[in-house]
Amino acid sequence: MQAPTYLVIIKGIYYAQVRVPSDIIKTYRRKQHKESLRTKDYSEACRKLHAAVVAIRRKFDEHRAQIKTHSEVKVAKPAQMPAPTPQSFADLGRQYGREISEQALTIRADLYEAAVANPKEFWRGAAQRYSAHDEFTYFDKIMADGDLDRVVGYVIRETTKARIADLKRAVDTGDVGELLELAEQRQPGLDRKAHVALALTLARAEIAALQSALSGDLEGRLTTPEQSPASASIPPSTAPALAPISLDALFDKWKAETKPAASTLSTWRGVIRSLKATFPTKADDAGSLTPEDMIKWKDDLVATGLAAKTINASYLACIRTVFNFGVANRLVKDNPGNGVKMSTGKKSKGAKTRFGYTNAGAARLLELAKQETNPRLRWLPWLAAQTGSRIGEVAQLWGSFVKEEAGIHYLDLKPAPDGGTFKEDVSERTVPIHPQLIADGFLEFVKSKGDGPLFYGKSSGNPEKKHASVGAASRVREWVRANGFNDKRIDPNHGLRHWFKTYASSDAIGVSDRLIDRIQGHAYATEAGGYYDPDLSELLTALKKIKLPPVSAGAEVSEG
Questions:
Q1: Most exposed residue of 23, 29, 51, 372, measured as fewest CB within 10 angstroms of its CB?
Q2: Contact 477, 496 (CB under 8 A)
Q3: Residue 388 contacts residue 494 (beta carbons within 8 Å)
Q4: How many angstroms separate the CA atoms of 209 and 460, rounded?
Q5: Closest to 219 in 3D by CA, of 301, 157, 286
Q6: What is the pLDDT of residue 42?
Q7: Does residue 362 register a pLDDT over 90?
């Protein structure tokens, strides 16, 4: 499962990582700010993430204030810290509660995007954490039915309940160490007693905000919660009416802050155009859109013949995500997309929607590629087949990524330096080059291209545009279809990734699952998997068992 935004793991330890805002990046002297969450446990890291991100952003604000101070005066007398009052603590609690509510909506959107991008891996990660719960069997079933709204809601609910339990325990025992540091950052200069009191106020504010988030149903629709004792201690604030904002402006604000992948940006711009075309009179006031409008739009999309997966995972997911951002940032009052979806119907038990190539199909595809003179068509299918990579990963290869260590030639698979991206951090890896590719002249081809891109000319470097390697991958897709591979259940490019896992793990080949995951850059099935780091020689031994082009099951496999 893709980790929530701002969560990274370094040498087994989880960190909160936030990009330094552009207005202070020169004086801050780093592009990313990291804070250790001091845990190797994923669930605990998620629970600590909220407060850590808030603390980092507070440091950004303090840095801005320091810059302003230095620019205005050479020597300034330290200001006298006003005595703390219950009201000032209440103000800080309200502010912190609002920040937690905004983060909860952002995390909800991030998790939904992760679930849409790879439902199987998303649920595998969730099931490992929550499989002891009675609801697991029920949610396992609706995951199989593709009901992502309820599944994401379930994961959020379980994570939030665990965080609330931890906070309540901290309030009851006085063990507020995590929030004590945050209190000291929010209002420095107080004595320890006052900082502890403020930490307890922040804890109660976070409990109230999270309980409010839990008041929605499992599809993520928020309802008006009853006021909890914790929230009752924080006086409500008077909210002014929101100014109208157009759909385009709302989308642009979401884009500027979240910096989505270029492929997402390209697709979702089309979604916004579609919604504007359906409701032209409401395009200048996004807040005027209603759930009934979303249902009508969804029905219109159904009438055009779009698949349920496209409508749910692209069109409606876009609206929910962008409007969640708008609600969190007080740009719109409500999210009209919550709870609206196209029914996918029942799938047959055990039904499979995506397949890989058979050995015969993979062999025919690789033989066709071997006859091509275009470098993309000649080498990309072979590289995908030998590494089990996503085609977009190998399409980003540069000549400088092809390296040698202890006599072993290998690929340093990572995003291209001119704006390339990988789907997941774990996808960055080193993989030995299969002996068959070396025998066929791949190293000579690399040498002829130099240190730059191997399969594309020049990328714009604009993160809002698709990277140039996407065009290379698309060209391979078109070529595969043009050569008669027309089974709609088999993705022209991704089918090789499916084939690799099936073939490598077969009885005839016998590569272990953890080695296969390491070669392919798959997310680890368990937390312990993150500590498995085989060397190049072990990986090469495994790859030598794989015959390229493949042979039928049961045939002799060369070890050479």
A1: 29
A2: no
A3: no
A4: 42
A5: 157
A6: 78
A7: yes
For residue 16, the cross-strand partners are: 7, 35
- The tokens for 131 are 């499989």
DSSP string, 255-299: HHHH---HHHHHHHHHHHHHHHHH-GGGTT-GGG--HHHHHHHHH
Rounded CA-CA distance 83/197 in Å is 13
Beta bridge partners of 453: 398
| Contact indicator for 560, 546 with CB cutoff of 8 Å | no
Reported as a single tens digit per residue, the pLDDT across 395-428 is: 999 999 999 999 999 999 998 888 888 877 668 8
Spatial neighbors of 74 by CB under 8 A, at least 6 apart, are none
pLDDT for 462-481, tens place per residue? Answer: 666 778 888 899 999 999 99
Is the distance from CB of 381 to CB of 492 less than 8 angstroms? Answer: no
The whole-number pLDDT of residue 324 equals 87
Give the pair of three-digit tokens for residue 541. 């031994």
Which residue type sits at 381?
Answer: P
pTM of the model: 0.49
pLDDT above 90 for 529: no
Structure tokens at 237: 């604030």
Secondary structure in 3-state letters for 395-464:
CCCEHHHEEEECCEEEEEECCCCCCCCCCCHHHCEEEECCHHHHHCCHHHHHHHHCCCECCCCCCCCCCC
Structure tokens that stand for 439 in this block: 């025998």
With a pLDDT cut of 90, the percent of the chain lying above it is: 31
In terms of residues, how long is the chain? 560
Question: Which of left, alpha, beta for 419 (phi over 0: left; psi -120 to 50: alpha)?
Answer: left
Nearest 5°: the CA angle 95, 166, 123 is 95
Pull the structure tokens for residue 292: 């009934």
245: Cβ contacts below 8 Å, ≥ 6 apart: 253, 285, 286, 287, 326, 331, 332
Q: How many angstroms separate the CA atoms of 342 and 302, rounded?
A: 8
